[in-house]
Amino acid sequence: MGHSYSLDLRVRVVAFVEAGHSCRAAARHFGVSDSFAIKLMRHQAQSGSPAPARQGRPPGRGKLARYETFLVQTVEAKPDITMPELAAMLLSEHGVQVDSATLSRFLCRRGFTDQKISAGRRVRTRRRARRASRLARPAPAPHA
């Protein structure tokens, strides 16, 4: 993903153009592309600010956002469910086809983590629950 130019540079380019210079002259003066200077001035005119726009997809949107409750309840009811099984269940009940890696990332962002249990299987648990149980245990005695 590309990085935005600093706000300081953006402000200086805008001030240079507003002082009466062309966008192309500002680009040459500050060592940026003509395209950047032109688009920056367009952005300045539309938004009133030279600050860069937010990059990426807005949070809370996406293919699985509508099914969050279903997914969380399913995993909490059956913690040892595999991602392919969960994907198949989502397809059969809601008609949404999704890759198991996408489901795994989605659940990790919601606080679930993949835990190995003694039988060699994996179980999805909430991070908060693990952290609370860790805090409830007495601290080990310091070595003297």
The overall average pLDDT, rounded, is: 84
Order of helices and strands: HHHHHHEEH
Q: Largest beta sheet, briefly?
A: 2 strands, antiparallel
Beta-strand percentage range: 5-15%
* Rg result: 25 Å
Distance between the termini: 52 Å
Q: Please, how many helices?
A: 7
| Fraction in helix | 40-55%
Spatial strand sequence of the major β-sheet: 1-2
Structural class of the secondary structure composition? mainly alpha
Q: Based on DSSP secondary structure assignment, what is the total number of beta strands? A: 2
Morphology: elongated
Any low-confidence stretches, pLDDT <50, length ≥5? Answer: none
Attribute tags:
144 residues; mainly alpha; two-stranded antiparallel ribbon; 2 strands; 53% helix; 7% strand
Would you mind describing this structure in some detail?
- This protein is mainly alpha-helical and 144 residues long.
- Helices cover 53% and strands 7% of the residues.
- It is built from 7 helices and 2 strands.
- The protein has helices at residues 7-18, 23-30, 34-47, 68-77, 83-94, 100-109, 127-136; strands at residues 112-116, 122-126.
- Strands 1-2 form a two-stranded antiparallel sheet.
- Strand 1 and strand 2 (122-126) form a beta hairpin.
- Helix 1 packs across helix 2, helix 1 packs across helix 3 and helix 5 packs across helix 6.
- The longest helix is centred in the N-terminal third of the chain and has 14 residues, at 34-47.
- The model has no long low-confidence stretch (mean pLDDT 84).
